[in-house]
Amino acid sequence: MRLLLISGSTREASTNTAALRTLAALAPPEVDAVVYGGLADLPAFVPGDDDAPPPAVGALRAALAVADAVLFCTPEYAGALPGSFKNLLDWTVGTGDLYGKPAAWINVAAPGRGTGALAELATVLRYVTVETLDAACVSAPVTRDALGPDGLVHDATVRAALTTALHAILNHLAARDLTSPASAQPPPPTTAGS
Prior knowledge:
- Helices cover about 35% and strands about 15% of the residues.
- By secondary structure, it is an alpha/beta fold.
- The protein has one domain (about 1-185): Rossmann fold (3-Layer(aba) Sandwich), CATH 3.40.50.360.
- Strands 1, 2, 3, 4, 5 and 6 form a six-stranded parallel β-sheet that branches.
- Strand 3 (about 70-75), helix 3 (about 85-95) and strand 4 form a beta-alpha-beta unit.
- Helix 1 packs across helix 5 (about 155-180).
């Protein structure tokens, strides 16, 4: 299974990115949890450039194409999504890169904060018709002093919340694989005249 973890922050010491890196570290060996690192490289979205996207956009689309699910974690700027993160989402609209993709979010803001960004994210995700995994959407406040020297979050409560999100995604994907036509037994062969 491959999970694409997308932070809405371009700051290297971001608690949002740290939470996603921590979740990736908690993933079992059979799960390839990749933290997307190209947010700052994306050019401004220009409608009509979908047919010949810049290389950074092509890389984003390639990462989304091979992901079984996407997990977002974003800060809030001025009561809404950061512009660079909204720009990333804008690049996925016209080409349907997120259409039907299982997706969830993690909120690491202090209690009662980040709600504007999450509401806007929910609006965009509904518009691009992702399959929102409510059981994997968790709030786990992370302060800057909670980051260890390795850049990961070591707080047990936060790690438990991240593990909850991770398991909810993996359980959803496993259940989906069990019920997909590809996993069903083929029908018995028919004989002539039957």
